[in-house]
Amino acid sequence: MYDELGRVDKDKVVGYVRGLQDPVTGEVSGDSWGEKDTRFAFISLAILSFFDSVDSIDVTGVVGYVERSMNYDGGFGSEPGGESHSAQVFTCLAALAIARKLEIVDRERLSRWLAERQLKCGGLNGRPQKLEDVCYSWWVLSSLKILGRVHWVDCERLCGFILSAQDPVAGGIADRPGDMADVYHTCFGIAGLSLAGFEGFDLEQVDPVYCMPVSVVERAGLRGWIDSRPESWKD
Fold first, then answer.
1. What is the distance between the alpha carbons of residues 29 and 69, in angstroms, rounded to a whole number?
2. Does the structure show a pLDDT above 90 at 235?
3. CA max distance for the chain
4. Which of 36, 156, 161, 223 could hold 122 in an S-S bridge, CB 3.0 to 4.6 Å?
5. Which pLDDT band holds residue 149 (cuts at 50, 70, 90)?
6. d(C-alpha 55, C-alpha 20), whole Å
7. Rounded to the nearest 5°, which phi and psi values hold at 28?
8. How far apart, in Å, are the Cα atoms of 210 and each of 141, 176, 198, 222, 223?
């Protein structure tokens, strides 16, 4: 964001991330304690992409782990066999976008599963039979944006739900109307408004892989994932 990556010891960061990958399974741990989760597949690739060092780890191994975490409904879980969850769908799609391997995704099935996350109130949930939550405005819409299917949900109703969760006094956004606002839901609520094309505010366009302004991602040279999408997705 501040163009200060030159102050970071690149070699140490890259070496640290590389050391967290299991050389046999391709899985990446979140820390030295060894917790494994598809979140870390995305985080590791995202970190390395900023240093133009994605190839410093076994990308094929990471992609294989993500692919094994894909379910019959087209979604992704936190690990192979884990229940599909919107947040995990984002981490897996974003990881595959950075790895230039989006072709392994069942676009039709996953798009349908994500679109089904919208409830009558206009908000989105993370998985079936759960309540709506503003944070899923990011997890679901970012995934649909990568898939080129944002129009599969009613963005006008979604924007209405997000704005209804804003604290009229403090200004922050909560998980749902009537709850306490916090920075987490404020961040993802605003990002969701951007992805939904809300025109009530002058919002920056957000990149759906990195959750940062497109201008920042372009400046870093990281928007190449768009051109690497399967040809059939570019409609």
1. 15
2. no
3. 53
4. 161
5. very high
6. 15
7. -115, 130
8. 13, 24, 20, 9, 9
